[in-house]
Amino acid sequence: MRPTRPVRAAALVGLAAVLAACAPAQTDGASSGADEMEGTLRVWLFSEVDQEPKEAVVDEAVAEFEDAHDGVTVDVQYIPVDTRAERFRAAFNDPSSAPDVAEYGNTDLAGYVEAGGFLDVTEDLADWEGHADIAEDVAATARVGDGTYGVPWFLGARALYYRTDVFDDLGLEPPETLEEVVEAGRTVREEDPDMLGVSTGGAYTYGFLPFVWAHGGEIAEEDGGTYTSAIASDEAKEGLELYSRILSDEVCPPQTCAEMGGNDSVQNFVAGNAAMTIGGNFNLKAVQESDIADDAAVVPLPGTEPGSIAPAFAGGNNLGVLAGTDKRTLSVAFMRLLAGKEYQRRMYDAMGNLPTFTDVREEIAAEDEEIAPFIETIDAGTRFVPATGAWAAIDAEGVLPTMVQRVASGDADVDEAAEEASASLDEAFAGE
């Protein structure tokens, strides 16, 4: 691959209430002041499709930790991502069966904190020199309110994949603005109606949000811990309008694209059916192993002005300490070791997980040009979803995808769809 670098209100409230009802018992572990320095340290990490490389790195960290702590055994369990909600819910309500340290998705954190499931480790990280090398926007993915509930372990970011052969044949240059992304997609489809100009979908939340953020829009605004919707602002609607121009017969027909999420969007590109897509660093291997590998390249998704980069969603997973632990000191120490620079670098080498430390990413970008556009995107500044337990319900209900799909299908104009989504967001925030 040749890289190019330019340099439902009831359901919503109900789910939020379920999360809030998961507060753990407050009789054991950290709440009672216990801080054992021996015994078994229990760790939950997510299982992967191919997790042997991950296990190998974790095993190295475990061996180092056990060598440094006499009388301590680290028991690592790999749990399925799909059943994490049930597993964590049970753990929060029964500290005796809970792990001491756990991997969690950063968008899940606010609900977990509202359920009382994770420790605020702000003071535990205060003397950790390396923590300062995590950029503020990335560090914020482990925060809720004034508390810090873990360490960002790895990141995922999305950028613009494109076909170099298609662009060369049409005399196109890599787009330098979001407007040019749309226009390039239109040009491609005019010349080849069987090809999607840009493969991206109405259900692709993290493909859509950069358009909102690049235009100065936001999902919501926060004031004193309270969120109110901002998705119907003029800036947000400008981004929605531009994205909706992609979901058209001229670029990516609604009958094909309106229902697509991220996986299907990228798969069209990998299969050779699209000239462009918005894909993550986690899709890079699939592209490299595809038939179009020699004709594919990546640049940061541009913003509204030449030379700018659209803010990307800071997806990823964190490591945190469970509130019910009776081994706080050991738990924090293991979290810091596994989430530290050395093991983040090893995890990148093993799994391709982008490190959360700025200096480690700089090393990787200098060594690997194919990953550089994603790192450049992260370094330009990322955004995150509202840090509230209501987000889990909002996401499950598909509030934002529904808004996009209504516009794409012609069921509503931008103003109407945005106002409806805004009302749903505010109702969810009020019910959190």
SSE diagram, text form:
Layout lengths: L8 H12 L18 E8 L5 H17 L3 E8 L4 H10 L7 E5 L3 H6 L7 H4 L10 H4 L3 E2 L2 E2 L2 E6 L1 E6 H7 L7 H14 L13 H10 L5 E4 L2 E4 L4 H13 L7 H4 L4 H9 L5 E5 L3 H5 L7 E4 L12 E2 L1 E7 L6 H11 L2 H11 L6 H10 L4 H8 L2 E2 L6 H8 L1 H11 L4 H17 L2
Helix pairs in contact: 1-18, 1-20, 2-15, 8-10, 9-10, 16-17, 18-20, 19-20
InterPro entries: SBP
Protein name: Extracellular solute-binding protein
Keywords: Signal, Transport
What does this entry look like structurally?
This protein is an alpha/beta fold and about 425 residues long. The chain folds into 2 domains: about 10-155 and about 315-385, D-Maltodextrin-Binding Protein, domain 2 (3-Layer(aba) Sandwich), CATH 3.40.190; about 160-315 and about 400-430, D-Maltodextrin-Binding Protein, domain 2. Helices cover about 45% and strands about 15% of the residues. It has 20 helices and 14 strands. The chain has helices spanning about 10-20, 50-70, 85-95, 110-115, 120-125, 135-140, 165-170, 180-190, 205-215, 235-245, 255, 260-270, 285-290, 330-340, 340-350, 360-365, 370-380, 390-395, 400-410, 415-430, and strands at about 40-45, 70-80, 100-105, 145, 145-150, 150-155, 160-165, 220-225, 225-230, 275-280, 295-300, 310-315, 315-320, 380-385. It has a 5-stranded mixed sheet. Strands 10-7-11 form a 3-stranded antiparallel sheet. A two-stranded antiparallel sheet has the order 4-5. The longest helix has 17 residues, at about 50-70. The radius of gyration is 22 Å and the shape is globular. The N and C termini lie far apart (about 45 Å). It comes from Nocardiopsis suaedae. Keywords: Signal, Transport. InterPro entries: SBP. Belongs to the bacterial solute-binding protein 1 family. This is Extracellular solute-binding protein.
